[in-house]
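S., here's the first fold you wanted:
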Amino acid sequence: FRLDDVLDLAVKHGVPWSAVSTRSPHFSVRKARVVRPPEEVTNSIKLEQAMGGFLQHTRRVVAMHVDRAAEFAPIRSDLDARIGVQSLGMLHQGWIKSAGGIFSDDRVATSKSDQRCEVSPLVSYGGEDLAGLFETA
């Protein structure tokens, strides 16, 4: 989609908005610093429009059937971002294991900076062509 087309559709057809409660840091004038609310506190609402709301108003739509676990990770918060990083790491770790790679102490990819696993898209986009790149025990 071109951005202009999406904006035109939103104005012409009134694509519905969704309100999402979220946690947002803010500047406190009284404390003269940025305040970060506790994890369990939501202090703001963000308005979103889903791309799916535009599809019924356009003539050119292409869809692909893909493995959701391998191709989709909704990112709406810091926690979602960490889950997305971990999901990608576990996917890439599976590719490496399938290609003969071994992880010491049966380690599993996580979102922690020292336990991440990523295969560069310059090396492989979907796990292909990794055979022979890893030493086996």
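And the second, which I think is the more interesting of the pair:
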Amino acid sequence: GNYGVWDYETWTLVVKICSGQIFEAGSRYEVKWVVQNPQVDQASPLIRISAVGTAKFLVTAVSKPGADILGVSNGVDPLLVITPTFVTKMLAQSNFLAEEENLITATLMTNVDVGSAGYAFISICC
């Protein structure tokens, strides 16, 4: 049977405590599940938890880690969704004269960390 239900409408996890099972006081339990993030940005909503079964727990808000990840403030908070974008995107040239060499410079800045080990490469293929 089901041991938990995730309600997308109310952002609530309802955990089922089965007969004969014990939740020991002071012990930590971990529940994991996969959700599909939406296509649009969203703030981390107020998420709640409750329990039903051999013991009932009232619906209560959960705490959030509040830690940064990939350069995003509070990025580990559940269901925060950010679309990677260029917050700065500018092109400039070094020379406007006919038949002269012209160096084009792209200046880019993203709203999230991209790449690995501090390196990101831009390739322009022609």
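Why I say that: Residues 94 and 114 are 28 Å apart (CA to CA). The two ends are 57 Å apart (CA to CA).

Talk tomorrow,
H.
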